[in-house]
Specification:
The protein is α+β, with helices and mostly antiparallel strands. The chain has two helices and four strands; from the N terminus they run αββββα. Helix content is 25%, strand content 23%.
Length: 99
């Protein structure tokens, strides 16, 4: 993970917490597309459970080809629906990596 990706994720979370309607959210999820030189990119999902910052990311994909797995991941995320309540931490599961 690049420093710029981490800083961007944290800034997105801070901005989201300040938005109207998110004041009481216990979980602040962020989905970020990271595009790098040489037309490579990846997706990063992040959230905080109040104690840990959990970040999951895809491998780096080549973005030159429209049939790249990167675009398949992007469209799959765009078509997905939220599955958890951002106000409740009680059923939170997953890999936790403190950053």
């Amino acid at each position: 993970m690049l420093r710029g990706e981490l800083v961007s994720i944290l800034q997105l979370m801070v901005n989201r917490m300040g938005e109207e309607g998110h004041e009481n959210d216990a979980i602040v999820p962020v989905l970020m597309f990271s595009i790098m030189p040489a037309r490579r990119g990846r997706l990063l999902q992040a959230y905080s459970d109040g104690e840990h910052l959990i970040i999951r990311m895809t491998e780096l994909f080549n973005c030159e080809d429209e049939n790249s797995p990167f675009f398949h991941h992007v469209f799959r995320y765009f078509m997905s629906e939220a599955v958890r309540d951002t106000l409740d931490l009680s059923d939170l599961t997953g890999i936790k990596a403190a950053i």
